[in-house]
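#lab-general

N.A. 3:47 PM
ok so I finally got the sequence cleaned up, no stray characters, all 335 residues accounted for. can someone with queue access submit it? mine expired

B.Y. 3:52 PM
send it over

N.A. 3:53 PM
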Amino acid sequence: MTLTMEQKTAKAVQALTGGLIPAVPVPRCKSGAIHGEAQEAYAAYLCRQQIGGVAVWAHTGRGLQLKAEERERILRSWRSHLDEGQLLVAGVGSLIDHLLPEPLRLEQWRRNSIAMAEEAIAGGAEALLVFPPVIYKEMESSRRDRAIIEYHRELSSVGLPLILFYLYEEAGGLAYSKEVLRELLALPSVVGMKMAALDSVMTLQDVSSLILDHYPGKLLITGEDRMFGYSLMCGATGALVGLGAAFPNIQYDLIKAFHAQDYALFMELSSRVDDYAMSTFTQPMDQYILRVLWCLALQGIIPGEAANDMKETGYELEKGELEKLRYTIQQCRLY
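B.Y. 4:20 PM
back already:
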């Protein structure tokens, strides 16, 4: 059945209101190839948990580094395991070809980003998570702001709800001015904004205040792995977060406890989730993806041979790091 834009938006809002959508990694062989059996086992496991859906092609899944055939395979896998009520979100954006002169570089990047959105729609995605358009970062401020707004307007025309993405710059993000945020949040296709400011409490507070005070129909969505519980206190209604990719149930229960005003349970679960985040989302930060994969392996959800990031990263975890993760899982009573 083909849904109207209003129905698509309603489904996205429902999944993200009081719900948890993990941003999922991709299990890989040592060679870097997708580990097919592990991918299917992981998808089958996660879709049985208390999740509102999943986000593929996001930063946790190395979305912008994926080849087209990998994107299609990953999307198909998750689509086959999600039930009708769960939301399939796809990240959209593009890598930048710095070898091209600016006009060609901008145009190729734009075409590739729109093409990725169209791939997502063709594969059954139901909402788009918009990677920050960092290609505009070096532009003069007024030109940059206009370009950011026009890019999101163009994505709005593809026919799916948009989730804005405020990502800290170390992970490839871009700081949006308050004027840009106002323009973006006013777009009818935008359901809300995922916040991943990481270590900037002020940014989280400022964006939260803007949304709660001026855009009550839009959602503040936490992507704050290291400020998970606090971000709920700042007004986040739900989560789209890499932290939920291995142990989503404890985080779902944390969200539920806060909205039920069961603050004793909220504080207990928040402390356990914070300790987990401190062991997985820590420096070097880019290795958090590998740590999450190993959390899955340590629980027997995927085999250890599938706990690999893209080969290009060269990342490996030492035995001591694995033991620390094992200890954290036990001490925090993750589930």
